[in-house]
Amino acid sequence: MIAQKMVKYVEGSSVTRAMFEEGKKLAAKYGALNVYDFSLGNPSTPPPASVKQAILDIINEVNPGRLHGYMNNSGHEDVREAIAQSLNKKHDTSFSQKNIIMTVGAAGGLNVILKSITDPGDEIIAFAPYFGEYNNYVANFDGNVVVIPPSIPSFQPDIQAFEEKITVKTKAVIINTPNNPTGVVYSEETIKQIAQVLYNKQEEYGTQIYLLSDEPYRELVYDGIEVPYITKYYKNTIVCYSYSKSLSLPGERIGYLVIPDEADDFDNLICAANVATRILGFVNAPSIMQLAIARCLDDTTDTTVYDTNRLLLYNKLSSIGFECIKPDGAFYLWVKTPCADDVEFAGKAKEFNLLLVPGSSFMCKGYVRIAYCVDTDMIKRSFTAFEKLAAYYSLKQHRNED
Ligand code: PLP
Questions:
Q1: DSSP assignment of 237-282, as one string?
Q2: Ligand 1 atom 5: the closest Cα is on which residue?
Q3: For residue 217, how far is its CA from the centre of ligand 1 (angstroms)?
Q4: CA 369 – ligand 1 centroid, Å
Q5: CB neighbour class for 241 (10 Å; exposed up to 12, middle 13-18, buried from 19)
C-alpha cells in the first residue's frame, strides 16, 4: 500500500497523464497536424552544436575514473570554478568554486536548498502565478507555501501584500524571473523593493530569510531586456540555475546552486547543501553533463525561433480580441480568459483542438498559459482554431462594446 502522503500526487499525475492521452486521442481522430499542443514547456530548439561536440570530445578525452566515478557531492571542482569565473565575467561578481554546487536541474537545486533550510512548519513565500511544482517541493520538507496574490496586469510582485505576509516563520521567498507562466521579467526596481522589504523584516524579527532565485529562463529574453543578477541586491540570495532551457537539455538534468559568501550561515549552508545532494539520492549531478556544460559556458540555444513565435502569437491573439501579457522572456504567453473559469475555457479550447494549461495550475485563476516552444508552422496552423475560440466568446464584439 502506498503512503497516504503520496495518494494526492498519484491522483494529480493521472490528471496530467489524462491530458497527455487526450492529446494523443485528438491526434488520432483529427490527424497530428490538426491538433495544437501548447501545453508543455519542452524546448523546441536543439542544443547548440557545441554541446554535442563537447560530449563527444569528453568521452574520447577524459579518463574513465574522472568521467564515470563518484566525486565530491558538490560536483567537479574545476567545473564549479569555471562556472564561478563565467558568472564573475558576466555579472561582475566574485564567486569561486566553493560558492557553486552542481545540481540535477533547477528541480534538484530547489529540493536541495529547501531540504537544507526548511524545518517543519516553516513558511516559504511564492508570488502567484508560479510553477506549481513549488508546492510539492516545499511539501517534501513539511514547509508551508504562503501565496502572494498576483498584481494584475503588470504581474510584477505586489510588494505591499508581500510585506504583510512575512512572519517570524518565513524561511525563504522564491522568485522566478523571467517567469513561468507569465513571461514577465521582474524589473530592477521590483528586485530592489523585495530586497529592502526582506532586510527590514529580517531586522524586525531577528530572523534570516533566504531569497531563492529560480532561473531556468535567465538566457531566454527578448528585445535586449536585462535580467538583474539577484545576489547583487540581497546578500541572502541563493540562485537555482538550470541548463534545461538555456541549452535545451531538460532530459540531461544539469544545473547549479550559487550560495554567496555573504549568505548568513554560509559554511553550514554549503555543508548542508552538499549533504542534501547526497542524502536526497542525487549523490552528485551527472558527471558527463557537468564536464560538457563547462565547455559551453558562453553558449545558449538559438532564441530567434522563440522570438518569432512570441510575436506571431502575441500579435495574432491580441488582434482577435484576447488580452495578452506581452512576454519579455521565457517561452510562455499568458492570456486572460474571457470567462471567469479558466478550466472551463481550456476545456472549450480543447474542442477546437487547442491544448492550453489553465492558470489555476499556477495558482492564478482567470488566465491560461500558452507554451510557444513549438514549431512555428503549428502556430500558424492554429490561428483558425484561435479565431473560432474568439468567435465563440464574441471577443471582437465584446471589445467593440468597450
Ligand atoms: N522552475 C521553473 C519555473 C520551471 O519552469 C521549471 C521547468 O519547467 C523548473 C524549475 C524545473 O527545471 P529543471 O528541468 O531544470 O529541473
A1: EEEEEESTTTTT-GGG--EEEE--TTSTTHHHHHHHHHHHHHHTT-
A2: 180
A3: 9
A4: 15
A5: buried
Question: 134 CA distance to ligand 1 centroid (A)?
Answer: 10
pLDDT tens for each residue of the chain, 402 residues long: 999 999 989 888 866 667 778 888 899 999 999 999 999 999 999 999 999 999 999 999 999 999 999 999 999 999 999 999 999 999 999 999 999 999 999 999 999 999 999 999 999 999 999 999 999 999 999 999 999 999 999 999 999 999 999 999 999 999 999 999 999 999 999 999 999 999 999 999 999 999 999 999 999 999 999 999 999 999 999 999 999 999 999 999 999 999 999 999 999 999 999 999 999 999 999 999 999 999 999 999 999 999 999 999 999 999 999 999 999 999 999 999 999 999 999 999 999 999 999 999 999 999 999 999 999 999 999 999 999 999 999 997 444 443
- Predicted TM-score (pTM) of the model is 0.96
Q: From the alpha carbon of 179, which atom of ligand 1 is closest?
A: 3
Strand partners, 357: 369
Ligand 1 near 337 CB (within 6 A):
no
Q: Is the C-beta atom of 107 inside 6 A of ligand 1? A: yes
